[in-house]
Specification:
The protein is mainly alpha-helical and 703 residues long. It is built from 25 helices and 9 strands. One of its GO terms (molecular function) is thiol oxidase activity.
Length: 703
Amino acid sequence: MSIASDAQLGNASPDESPPGAEVVASSVGNSITDAEAEAEAAVDVANDASPPPTYAPEDEEEEVSIEDVYNPHNLTMDELEKFLYEWEEEAAPYVTEYFDERTMHKLRTGETDDNAEEEDNTVAEEAASAESESNGWMHRLRSKMTYDDGSKTRVEFKKGATKYLTLSDDAAHVVEFYAPWCPHCQHYKWEYVEVAAEVLRRAISPVKFHAVSCDVHYAICSTYNVHGFPTILGWKQGESTAIRGIEMNEEYNIEADTVGEMLGLDMAHEAVELYDADVDDDVTKAKRLKTMKEQARKATKLKKSWHEHTPHTHNDRYHDAALSLTFAVKSQLFQTKTDDGKMDPKRKRALVDFLNLLDWATPQSWSTRTSLIKNLQWKVEADALMNRGDVESLIDEDVTRHRSSGAEEVWGYVDRGRSGWAVFGQKQDELAKDDKHWTKACTHSQPAKGFTCGLWNLFHILTIGSSKVDHELYGFHRGYFVSPHHVAETIRNFVAYFFSCDVCRTNFLTMYDNCGHDHCHRLKSEIAMSPAEGSDSAFELALWLWEVHNSVNARLMEEAAQRQNREVTHEELLASKFPTKKMCPSCWLDANMTKWDNRSVFQFLDAWFWPNNEPTNLQFKAVIAGELEERLLADEDVGLSKNGQALNAPPFRHSGHGSGFVLICILAAVSLLFIATLQKKVRDRRKKFVDSRYVKKKQSCLR
């Protein structure tokens, strides 16, 4: 996308002269005689025999055909002229025109917009107005433009029928009210698109951008008391559109950070360069230094309070994890589709692998695993989900089923009947009170936040669960890849396809694909033949993800300080690390928290993210009992397991194993055929040898 250049807006740059400027310059310069002019003209013709260039008039525009423009709703050219964004293909991914079939029916039939035409005149006068060339209220809207104050075209709406926007409550919304004939709106169009693109690139919280043409939706614009074009209103996630939203461009045009602050969005931030503040006197410098220290102190205190003083239980963490899982799936599964409207194969493969991982690496007592995840597994595999509505219906049904069962626990619980218990000597109270919202432990009282926190919880749960021998055996028996490397690859691919924040996704993938925190050497692709529970190799994956998470926390703390134009303090970096020394004194081996004890950290993570005394179902116990003895007695030299999984498999990007399993089976069949052929040759050679000995012995007897 690009904003109109100076030339497009009719402003020539200082270094360029428009056609004919030389003529103007000569007319105001020193006068010359006619003879001299004729002589110079003759020289010019002699030096340049080519015809002079011709310029098309600037006011002539090439006629645009309806077939040449982006037109998803098959509107006529007259109908397209009532919109600014509907026919802009470059704007479509970021800004959505508020549009419905009922609206187009009114435009095509000349029907007025829900009694917006009602005035104090007679019915006859009203009918005449509706039949006028200016199409009634649209003409009056233009005629009531009062003045141009430099930032908006001011208008006056006559109050008519009340009509509110119909927007979803699962996201924040930014809405631009405009008129297609308004010069300010025309110039601001691509700036609004760029702001939307930047917010969507960095947004972690769900947010949508809309545009409302007041030439089409007169009653809506009147209801929200739009007093100038363009007017931008915003609604926080969950807010009712029955009230007027936050006006975001009353005094100045909006920017991405402004949108995030006004709507309380959880947004990724990027590193910025510090600049020298214009400070001359010592008093101002002292005040600046005091402000910086206070900012650092507040940031340190706030981060520590999130870790140490916000109470929550295992049920809260698993509830947040379940919400983040469902949000990622429903918002991203159908972002890209095949030509026949089905799920993108790569996106589907990444989700199937992740659901398989959830099947074997999460607690057997997790309610979401035994219901929603199982349903998603077979429906995704069978292509039974066709759109986002199908996914949302599946999720809503699971929440409704949980609530109708009479369960006291919040949806996504893992420990039944536990409202609170002591963790590390501190009584923890359950925070989750709403089945469809993240807890305060993740949102920190900011409702739009919580997604990334819940997703980190889910990833930590998976790395802890995959380190447990019984869960590894269960996954191995089900035919899944269960090595630490394959678990990390599965998480990586899920982030690649299901993390909506471009900045966050890019940061994680860049870290992983460049062997961040040495995972290429730390995480093995092999499966331990005799795993000793509690050994260092058993929890290397959990420690690796923990290091990644802490490095992200430190980077975010640094970026927050940079936005305040200051360097991050040592205390802030210590506060960003989890767990704090107060939470786990034995985890850290030095005062600067640069060295840690692996076993203590793993024990802390295990207690924090895994339920106490996890119960197992009969199927799980049967799998473990039937597989354990066979696993421990296996020969270390065997290259293939009973389900075809390579014990020394090389690293690979995609963890789907359908084609790999077939290949291994083919190799195994070829190997067996080769062995059988070799054995037959050996038998034939032995038979030939025995027969030759018998013949020789018989010949000696005859002599």
